Amino acid sequence: MSKRIRSAPRKQPRQERAKATVETILEAAAHVLVTSGYEGATTKAVAERAGVSIGSLYQYFPSKEALVAMLLERFHQQAVEVLSDKLVPHPITDLEQEVRELVRVLVEFYGVNPRLQRLLLEQAPRIGPLRAVQELETRVESLVQTVLAQNLAFERPRNLGLVVFIIIRALRSAVWATVVERPELMGTPELVEELSTLVLGYLRPRAYPVTSSRSP
């Protein structure tokens, strides 16, 4: 018999009352994690904060890892919803303005409740890969690729899927590192400008062809 993954929810709420209970538990978990840290947080403390029995909590979340996993999934879902509004296919008349606006929205989103987001990002490796999060990232890549395919004519043949993959990973890594290591920079115009420059420098057609430095 395969072992149950401790970061997986035990069951999904179906009735409105059950959904409300799960919402309360998750809000309590976010509060306890921020105030007590990951190591100090316990499912008992979360249940007490939520005003539910520990048995009620375990009906939905078998462990602290499962709570963190669900908070991570919801966090990414909210990010996709925010970005989707900016990634509706449309003609791009000013690439710099479009990129800066997208980066600004992304930075502002990550700047909300940075203590919780820092904790979630730090604990993500402990939780392991989450299928829902991977599916959300794939959706973002698809949206970005659709917009670029309709608006950018590259000077040389490029693998657009790879271009988008690199952009998304570069932005994600830079923003996550800022949240964890330099949270005071979140939301600043300087961060938006530097990240925008990073993306624009990669997207713009090269003025000169890339030549190999290797001898023939």
Model description:
The chain has 216 residues and is mostly helical. The chain has a domain at 68-203: Orthogonal Bundle (Tetracycline Repressor, domain 2), CATH 1.10.357. It has nine helices and no strands. α1 (16-40) packs across α2 (43-50). The protein is elongated, with a radius of gyration of 21 Å.
Give the structure's gist in a few sentences.
With 216 residues, the protein is mainly alpha-helical.
Name of the CATH architecture of the domain at 68-203? Orthogonal Bundle
- Major pleated sheet: none
Global outline: elongated
User: Which blocks of ≥5 consecutive residues have pLDDT under 50?
Assistant: 1-5, 207-216
- Helix content range: 55-70%
The arrangement of helices and strands along the chain is HHHHHHHHH
The level 1 CATH classification of the domain at 68-203 is Mainly Alpha
Alpha-beta classification: mainly alpha
Number of strands: 0
Question: Which features characterize this protein?
Answer:
single chain; 216 residues; mainly alpha; Tetracycline Repressor, domain 2; 9 helices; 70% helix; 0% strand; elongated; disordered N terminus; transcription cis-regulatory region binding; DNA-binding; transcription; TetR family transcriptional regulator; HTH-type_TetR-like_transc_reg
